[in-house]
Amino acid sequence: MSNVTELVAADSSIGPYSFEDFLEVAAAFHGNPAPGLIIGGFMVDAARAFLPEGTLFDAVVETNKCLPDAVQILTPPSYGNGWMRVRNLGRYALSLYDKFTGEGYRVWLDPEHLKAWPEIHAWYLKTKPKKEQDRTRLFAEIKSGGRGLCLVAKVTVRPDFVAKPHMGAIGVCPVCGEGYPKADGAICRGCAGEAPYLREGDSPRLRAVPVGEAAGRRALHDMTRIVPGASKGVAVSAGADITAGDVCRLQTMGKNRVYVEELSEPGGAFVHENEAALAFAEAMCGPGLVTSGPPREGKVELLAAADGFFTLDKARLTQFNMIEGVMCASRQDSLVVEAGKPVAGCRAIPLYLPRRVFDAAMHVLAEGPLFVVRPLRKPRTGVLVTGTEIHSGLIEDKFEPVVRAKVEALGGSVVAAVTVPDDRAAVADGVRRLLAAGADLIVTTAGLSVDPDDVTRAGLDDAGLADAVHGMPVLPGAMALVGRIGGVDVIGVPACALFHRTTSFDLLLPRVLAGVAITRRELAGLAEGAMCLSCRACTYPKCPFGK
Fold it and tell me: φ and ψ at 149, to 5 degrees?
């Protein structure tokens, strides 16, 4: 940081207090006169000394240890009034800055600078156990060092810190009835499982009879028979009248008693697992999905109703699973799925779910479905092959067959293919020829690297490329491009597609065909899992790539 100023100790006073008085004030506010809080007092003083007289200022503190309390004791800014922000970077530093301009001063502790005070240096770097610290010497060094312990530099605070944060709209949580920020979702975060309190267990009155006395009674829940290595399935379904044959099967399963409806009294405060699972599944299902039918073993699956592109609401899926007593597992977001295949499954964890928990889960789902299978449009594809060596016939084109195979695998077709040299004007003209041929998707090949001879991007720009994103965190295929020319989608495929079976093109193509908006943020989210291992036998999409 430039313009660093080293200070010298003026006196040992801290704000309006003598050193000894500040120790008492700190102890009353903080619980004890912590060394960090006392040093923080000198740091606040140092920053205020540089601010012009009469400046209305805010504060940002870079640690949540002790230092925020020094700001709150000595200045108007506090955590409660929003004039002090804590951005916990783990650095013992603070800034006071003009409320309106963001111009201010940052004060911090520097380990090298603190070597002049050995006890403070050891305390700051935690090189000496607390019980071995000489507390008398430590506080003596703090008093003598004063403001001289600090370094100061002029700073300009980012505009988003100058702008005052707003809480936003307040809603009433439908579960607990308390006010909460509506931006948190359909229910408050406490009811979504983040409350710091333990709840007393909910336990409905459930009764069992010896298995030999179960004939003629109604089963309370699905009872599963497992044959290791062979089968797993429901032997007796919930609500079924238990027969003598069922009794024999249950005995062979090792059942000594059976829970039955007739003697159980769950009451209106509870929801049976089957009722809960079916309600969850129906609420989660968006377009392109159906439920698997009645619950089996308390679980309902969601199936793709047709081939398409599977997407999910990650934030609300997490919020749903934060609620204790419910669960939903799904396949990865942004997958091409087949009709009839399961994409998610949900259930209640206990046999009877407390109604308050059921209601909380349903409120999360009330904002709309969690899952959608988007249909893939069948594109009329124009392939633009770039490369002087291919255009001149020196090298056989192998790009067009690669593109054709991937497009046709998703139900599309290639209506035209044009080969052009590495020439800006030729690339633009090739695009126009493909548009004239009726293409509603243009796929260009190669010419997208940093090589000055690669002019594909420039030619696309001349042809009217808009909303372009060039480059993505995927290997292979980092130099891929996606954008639009009028109402026609454009995908630029880098040369790596010739040498690798699976590339960024395989991730981009279904997204484009499903109408997913391709933004920089969308592509940045692909980074985790986007490094192909180039396996000798490629199993994509049955592998972690792109997930």
Answer: -70, -20
Structure tokens at 479: 């130099």
Amino acid present at 43: M
Q: Give me the architecture of the 208-259 domain, per CATH.
A: Alpha-Beta Complex (3.90)
CB atoms within 10 A of CB 435: 18
Under 8 Å between Cβ of 455 and 421: no
How would residue 230 be classed by pLDDT, with cut points 50, 70 and 90? Answer: confident
Q: Domain 5-162 belongs to what topology? A: 60s Ribosomal Protein L30; Chain: A; (3.30.1330)
Radius of gyration over alpha carbons of the chain, in Å? 33
Distance, CA of 294 to CA of 273 (rounded, Å) = 12
Q: How confident is the model at residue 202 (pLDDT cuts 50, 70, 90)?
A: low
Same fold, 270-374 and 380-524: no
CATH of 270-374, one of 2.60.40.420, 3.90.1170.30, 3.40.47.10, 3.40.50.360: 3.90.1170.30
| pTM (predicted TM-score) | 0.75
User: What would the DSSP string read from start to end of 41-53?
Assistant: HHHHHHHHHHSPT
